Amino acid sequence: MVKKNKAIFFDRDGTLIKTFISKKNIPIAIKNYEDIKFENNSNLVVKHFKKKYLIFIITNQPDVSRGKNLKKNVILINSIVKEKLGIKKIYTCYSDKDKNFMRKPNPGMIYKAQKEYNLNLKKSYVVGDRYKDILAGKRANCKTILINKKYNSSSQVEPDFKINNLKDLLKIIKV
């Protein structure tokens, strides 16, 4: 029997890198690489978990299909984040259509990774700063962890865990 891998799926903006916040307290993705600022302890946390987990990013980038950003900018930001943190792979959905299976809160990006990397989703985690991340994780039968950023958004689902910062993950996920 082939042993299945465990994974941690991180959202990108507001989770591993800082995001802009609108006047209405809603997160807005950065648009170019000069704006990349890593969240506190993102490198430490990813490095720690790479010992036992495959590390992925799953990110919605609808500004591309909305004409508010260029795909090449998102690809450049992703490549810098991937290299700096040593991420296995980044899955990106450019669609702004909620029915798109790859767009969070749908689990398409997680299922794609499962297929490509032989993952045991019941032993995997989804970590994000929005309820779309949590719902995608729940739909894929992963454990879910919300970084509580106190955005102006409604909750459709309860995460398995709530934390205040990335370093708190070290208390929850055991290596």
Notes on the protein architecture:
The protein contains 5 helices and 8 strands; from the N terminus they run βββαβαβαβαββα. It has helices at 42-49, 71-85, 108-117, 131-139, 169-172, and strands at 7-10, 20-21, 27-28, 54-60, 89-93, 125-128, 143-147, 161-163. The chain is an alpha/beta fold and 175 residues long. The protein is globular and about 45 Å long. The strands form 2 sheets. The chain has a 6-stranded parallel β-sheet with strand order 5-4-1-6-7-8, covered by helices on one side. A two-stranded antiparallel ribbon has the order 2-3. The protein is 26% helix and 18% strand.
Structure in a nutshell:
By secondary structure, this protein is of the alpha/beta class. 26% of the residues lie in helices and 18% in strands.
